[in-house]
TrEMBL record:
Membrane topology: Multi-pass membrane protein
Record-given protein name: L-arabinose transport system permease protein AraQ
Family: Belongs to the binding-protein-dependent transport system permease family.
Residues spanning the membrane: 12-31, 71-90, 102-126, 138-156, 237-256
Amino acid sequence: MMHSRRTQTLRYFLLFSFSIFFIVPFGYAIYTSLLSKADIGHLVLPSQWTFENYKDIFQTSDILIWYKNSIIVTFGILIGNLFVNTTAAYSLARINYRGRGVVFFLVIGMMMVPYQVMIIPIFSMIVDLKWLNSYQGLIIPFLFQGFLVFLMRQFFLTVPKELEEAAEVDGLSKIGIFYRIMLPLSKGAIGTQIIFSFTGTWNSFVWPVTLVNDSRWYVMTVGLNTLKNRYFEWPNLTMTGVVLLTLPIIIVFLMFQRHMVQGIATTGLKG
């Protein structure tokens, strides 16, 4: 009993210690964003903090446009991922058809190809389609995510076949089984998929900065990069942008954290 308590105490201590590495940088960003220009580089009391930086960044930049673009692109990709990845994973896990193994092999193969290798051919196709500086150019190439297909497939493999067989006896089709049985059971895995898809898209920089050269189409990451170049001597304004960029990720994570833990715990490596 004593050994178990010591082990648990050590585990919590290690988790707390690791969490410091993630909490301190964001805490520093929040603190710096509340400093006036005269207080930069100094340790000041909360009574001297100010929200003027947030007011200034909204008045002197196009951050509302960047936010709008990021929201549209992120939710466009997220909704596409939930539909494409989940249905593809269901077909790979529960439907027998010729070539299924080859399709799954291709999905796994795509996970092994570095993202940077695919940028040039994707960019060439986007140029041919005249999708530069457009939402479709930012969204459509990323509606499919190999890792998330693999994640959902592994979950669907853990669902007992008896549930599917009973549903077929009751007259449900494969589509009916998917919507009425599989989806309600996969809330944890879907929550995990939402977190991965949202954070990956919201934080993406390489593809948006490659595709977009018009400031009206900047997403938050690209816009804040220009903000950093403009206000490099005022870290308080730069950190204000960092806080505004990070807050949506924290909110989404807190909303789906329980589902993510459940999804990771229940998604095995079967198959």
